[in-house]
Amino acid sequence: MMKFIIFGIGFLLSNLLLGQSWKKIDSIQLEARDSITDFSVDDFHNMYYIRNFSELNKIDFQTRRRKTFSNQQILENLNTQNILQVTLKSGFFNLLVLDNQLNPIQDLIQFPIETNFSPTLTALVDNNYVWGYDPVMQRLVLWNYREKKAIRQSVILSEKTGDEFFSEMVYHQNKIYLIGYTKCLVFDEYANLVSVIPFQKFDQLYFVNQKFYYSAEGKIWKFDLQTKTTQLLDTPNGFDYFAINNRYLFVLTNKVVYLYEFQKHD
Questions:
Q1: Of residues 225 and 16, which shows the higher confidence score?
Q2: How far apart are CA 68 and CA 56, in angstroms?
Q3: With the C-alpha atoms ordered 62, 63, 64, 68, is the resulting torsion angle positive or negative?
Q4: For residue 180, what is the DSSP state?
Q5: Lowest mean pLDDT among 2-11, 84-93, 146-155, 200-209
Q6: Is 11 helix (H, G, I), strand (E, B) or coil?
Q7: For 87, 151, 219, 253, which has the most beta carbons within 10 A of its beta carbon?
Q8: How large a percentage of the chain has pLDDT more than 90?
Q9: pLDDT for 20
Q10: Helix, strand, coil percentages for the chain (3-state, nearest 5)
Q11: Contact, 203 vs 218, CB < 8 A?
Q12: DSSP string of 45-94?
């Protein structure tokens, strides 16, 4: 995971709101013989992690039982933010779709060389379509993976500067969020650019209830898309990974997951 330095101190200071707190309520030891290379959770509070880029593991929140999945390919870019689906990159730009029991639910989504479409970022829409961002084309493309052809695409992204790198893409309620070093581009379902939101560099990012939760320099921040305000979460500094859902914050440090619950104040 790449480590970046926060960009735009003025942006942070002008929007910073302190006060949201989280109470630690539990800790869970993960069984991993070697390094953990990705980590996430779903809305049922189940935990997922990739071991050494090769094996996906799921820890059931209620029973603490572990399930595993491996297809003998490199596994990365774990995404569990669809309530019943898990997606991850398998091998070279192929997209693997599993159910929340780690069973493949469709054929591997591939992007053949002859299509001239090699997205580095993808966001699954349904059983036929996936949004993808191709940095060579500098376009956002809605891809029919059944028929292996583009359905619609954005214009060349003139908002992207020559040295900018987009590292996350989120699809939610017919909107696409393409997040880069200094800005978030928001598109409608027809790939029209509708807004540009100033942003900053980050390590991980989650989209929950119209808010971006992201980590930078060992801290966790919340950016509200409606109010355009940024808030520092009151959690311990320094961790390997974090994940969040509608109820809990999960912080992974040295193969131990610490579970936090939001505290409401009078």
A1: 225
A2: 6
A3: negative
A4: E
A5: 2-11
A6: helix
A7: 87
A8: 68
A9: 56
A10: 5, 50, 45
A11: no
A12: --EEEEETTTEEEEE-TTT--EEEE--SS-EEEEEEEETTEEEEEETTTE
Strand partners, 48: 40, 58
Q: Cα 17 from chain centroid?
A: 24
Segment 188-212 shows an average pLDDT of: 94
Residue in the structure block whose two tokens are 């992207």: 160
pLDDT in tens, 37-96: 999 999 999 999 999 999 999 999 999 999 999 999 999 999 998 777 999 999 878 999
Per-residue confidence (pLDDT) for residue 152, from 0 to 100: 95
pTM check: above 0.70: yes
Beta bridge pairs of residue 232: 221
CA 200/CA 88 separation, integer angstroms: 25
Residue 211's identity, in one-letter code, is K
**What is the average pLDDT across 127-142?**
93
Find, among 167, 97, 165, 81, the residue nearest to 130 by Cα.
97
At 139, which amino acid appears?
R
Provide the token pair at 127: 């059983």
How deeply is 175 buried, as exposed, middle or buried, from its count of CB atoms within 10 A (0-12, 13-18, 19+)? Answer: middle
Residue 128 is encoded by which pair of tokens?
């036929």
Residue 11 phi, psi dihedral angles, 5° rounding: -60, -45
The SS3 assignment for 20 reads coil
